Amino acid sequence: MLVLHYYPGNASLLPHMMLREIGAPFEMRLVDRDNNAQKSPEYLKLNPNGRIPVLADGDLVLFETVAIALHLVDRFPEAGLAPQVGSRERGEFYKWMVHLTNTPQAEYRAWFYPDEHVTDEAAIPAAQKAAEQRLCRMFDVISDQLGDRQWLLGDRFSAADLFLFMLIRWGRAMPRPPRALPNLNALAERVLSRPAVQEALKVEGIQAPFF
Ligand SMILES: N[C@@H](CCC(=O)N[C@@H](CS)C(=O)NCC(=O)O)C(=O)O
To answer: pLDDT digits over 23-35, tens only?
Structure first.
């Protein structure tokens, strides 16, 4: 049995949307972040970093969103959430999955948790502003690379588009949100129109504005 430990709108949204696209049975367990449950002794046994998400696949317990996503594409190849192993497109897919996780996703931590990035409280607003500016530059590059193509891989939808959707969504309160870039806005609209995505958002209680 697959069990996804999640919190609404958190990084768990990527594996959640993927599981809905896949259509396999799975269970969802809320990590009560409001009570800091991600730092509880029980949860730390699943993820010693105390972060969301975790996916348990039987006795295999995975943390790191992208590790979970790559495991799901391999576990359910028939869902077609990634191109064929060894293909040119698969290489492009890896490029985007790794770029999205170690560039904008990592940068979002500095934006959402600026206090973790400074030793002096007075520096928090400046640290957050700098993170925001770096995020804007990252989204400019992603938008240019995407151009007017339908998906990150061109004609082919993949889990990388779900990932980018989640990251576009996270920036919706930024002074210049990612949706301000027309290419990113169009991709987010396309992802949002997918029934599996609608279902995941509904189950998590996420309401408009979605991004
Ligand atoms: N690199 C990790 C980052 C996960 C992460 O930062 N999760 C956030 C929610 S989106 C979290 O758990 N925040 C609560 C905390 O840090 O205590 C991953 O991709 O799984």
So the answer is: 999 999 999 999 9
